[in-house]
Specification:
The protein has about 200 residues and is of the alpha/beta class. It has one domain (about 15-190). Helices cover about 35% and strands about 10% of the residues. The protein has seven helices and five strands; from the N terminus they run βαββαβαβαααα. It has a five-stranded parallel beta sheet. Helix 6 packs across helix 7 (about 180-190). The longest helix has 17 residues, at about 160-175. It is globular and about 35 Å long. It starts with 18 loop residues before the first strand and ends in a 6-residue tail after the last helix.
């Protein structure tokens, strides 16, 4: 008799999710988790979205909608793109780097729901994840918890990321769509923790 986990359609889990990184080159190379993901072969470097077919889901902190389970199909088909840039410069810039005006209409733009960083630069701060934490969170939210744990291995502070955020990640992952994720955010944080 098959286990409950084996009743899923094999097409629901077709191989690894493609991960893409745009390097803004603003962080010190030794602190740049995006560069380390590229070096380990866990992500592919791109300079822009154009040419990625199908287009990936773009993690954009300025996007109005949070990533939700409803985005799973888009993630499995197109992958996830993260821009590796400095939080200090991002908050003063007012727009997301690494994608030009032509790219804004390509790919589904989603922000991550509020989570707590465990990386050494931003430990304990809400919504200030580094690139590997952001990609791991995105994978977790679309049902790829094992992949999330795999890409976190070997990064400083990463062993705490999933345990510190487990309740939040599980609650967000159970939310079916962006509206439900927003409701969970309000329940967990009571507003905008980053503000």
């Amino acid at each position: 008799m098959p286990s409950s986990g084996s009743t899923r359609n094999p097409r629901d889990r077709p191989g690894p999710v493609r991960l893409f990184i745009v390097l803004a080159g603003e962080d010190h190379p030794k602190a740049c988790t995006g560069r380390r993901l590229l070096h380990r072969g866990l992500a592919r470097r791109v300079s822009r979205i154009e040419g990625i077919v199908p287009p990936p889901v773009v993690l954009d902190p300025y996007a109005s909608e949070p990533l939700a389970a409803a985005d799973r199909k888009a993630v499995v088909q197109g992958g996830i793109l993260a821009v590796d840039c400095s939080w200090n410069r991002l908050t003063h810039r007012g727009r997301f780097p690494g994608t030009d005006a032509d790219d804004r209409d390509r790919g589904l733009r989603r922000r991550l729901p509020f989570l707590i960083a465990t990386n050494p630069q931003h430990y304990g701060r809400p919504a200030q994840l580094n690139t590997v934490e952001a990609l791991a969170a995105a994978l977790y939210l679309v049902g790829r918890a094992e992949d999330a744990a795999r890409i976190l291995r070997g990064f400083r502070g990463s062993d705490a990321f999933l345990p510190v955020n487990r309740e939040r990640l599980d609650a967000y992952a159970r939310a079916r769509d962006a509206a439900a994720v927003l409701a969970v955010e309000r329940r967990l944080f009571g507003g905008d923790p980053a503000g």
